[in-house]
Amino acid sequence: MEGETLVCLKDIVPSAQTNINTKFIVLEKARTIERQNKTCLALVADETAAVHFQLWGDECDAFEAGDIVRLTNGIFSYSRNNLVLRAGKRGTIEKIGEFTMAYVETPNMSEIRWVPDPNNSRKYVQETVISTHSRIFPPSN
Predict the structure, then answer these.
(1) Per the count of CB atoms within 10 A, which of 40, 100, 136, 141 is most buried?
(2) What is the phi-psi region of residue 90: left when phi exceeds 0, alpha when psi lies from -120 to 50, beta otherwise?
(3) CA 101 centroid distance within chain
(4) For residue 102, which phi and psi values (nearest 5 degrees)?
(5) What is the DSSP string of 7-53?
């Protein structure tokens, strides 16, 4: 992936496009939910922001807290009314290291209310911050 431009988590916006290339550290994983497809939610972060990341199927067991992950062609969109970053059908995620990455836990990009841009209906803009931190993964202090 030489020469690819990585997006900071603070710069991601909701979109139907699958083109987010970024890297982050997994901070925490929620329990796995077994429905038609196995899924679990993780709290991930980089040095600019945090976000909820949706893991599917074998990804739920492949990644743990402390893993540094590269996402290629990811998507930031709604899944069951929650705004999550995910690999989607065309994206890939791979572990590229562990434990040695600076990060912040706020702002959490999944805890921001987004609305259509009045000047461009194909884009979204931040309306309000729902919570400064993750309500699914509360601060541990």
Answers:
(1) 40
(2) alpha
(3) 16
(4) -75, 145
(5) PPGGG----S---EEEEEEEEEEPPPEESSSEEEEEEEE-SS-EEEE
Whether 43 and 28 have beta carbons less than 8 Å apart is answered as yes
Q: Is 0.90 surpassed by the pTM of this model? A: no
Strand partners, 25: 45, 68
CATH T-level topology, domain 9-105? OB fold (Dihydrolipoamide Acetyltransferase, E2P) (2.40.50)
d(CA 2, CA 25): 20
CA gap 134, 106 in Å, rounded: 8
| pLDDT tens digits, 28-64 | 888 766 667 778 889 999 999 888 898 888 888 888 9
Residue ranges of the domains in the chain? 9-105
* 91: its two tokens: 């994206």
Question: Is the C-alpha dihedral spanning 68, 74, 76, 78 positive or negative?
Answer: negative
